[in-house]
Amino acid sequence: MTQTIAKQTLYDTDLNLWLETVISQLRSHDLEHIDIENLIEELEGLANRDKREVVSRLRTLIEHLLKRCYVDMPNEFRGWEVTIRTQRFELEQILEQSPSLKRHFIDNFDKCLKFVLEDVRSEYPQYSFPTTWQFSRDIDSILNAKFWS
Q1: Which of 25, 34, 38, 50 could bond to 11 as cystine, CB 3.0-4.6 Å?
Q2: Minimal CA–CA distance to 63: which of 46, 92, 40, 84?
Q3: Which domain holds residue 98?
Q4: How many domains does the chain divide into?
Q5: Measured over all CA atoms, what is the biggest interatomic distance in the chain, rounded to whole angstroms?
Q6: Is 15 domain-assigned?
C-alpha cells in the first residue's frame, strides 16, 4: 500500500513569506517563477474584499440614517450621527482609492436598503419607516447630506 503525501507549497505554509517572495519576484521581473494560480486567487480575494466592505459600510450607513431620520429617540442621535460620519468617511476613502467601486455602491443600494428596512422595522416596530428611499440617491448626497432636520 502506497501513501501519497500532498506536497505543501510556500503559499500553504506561510502566506506572508509567500507574498514577500511574489513581490520580490515581480520587482525583479522574475515572472518565470511566480506562483500565478495563487496570485490570481489572492487578487480576486482582494477585489471581493473591497466589494464586501462597500456593502457592509453602506448597510451600516443606511441603517443609521434611517434611525436618525425616523426614530424619535434624541438620546441616541449623537451615537447615530457619529456612526454616520464614520461610515461616510470610510466609504469616501474606499471610493476615492477605487472609483470603479462607485458602480458597486449604486448597484447594491436597493438591496442594502431592503435588508436594513427589515431590520429597523423589527427593531423599532413603534416607528413608521418609508417603503422607498426618500432622499437623493446621488452618491455625493448619500455621503454628505444631512437628511434629518
Answers
A1: 38
A2: 84
A3: 48-144
A4: 1
A5: 77
A6: no
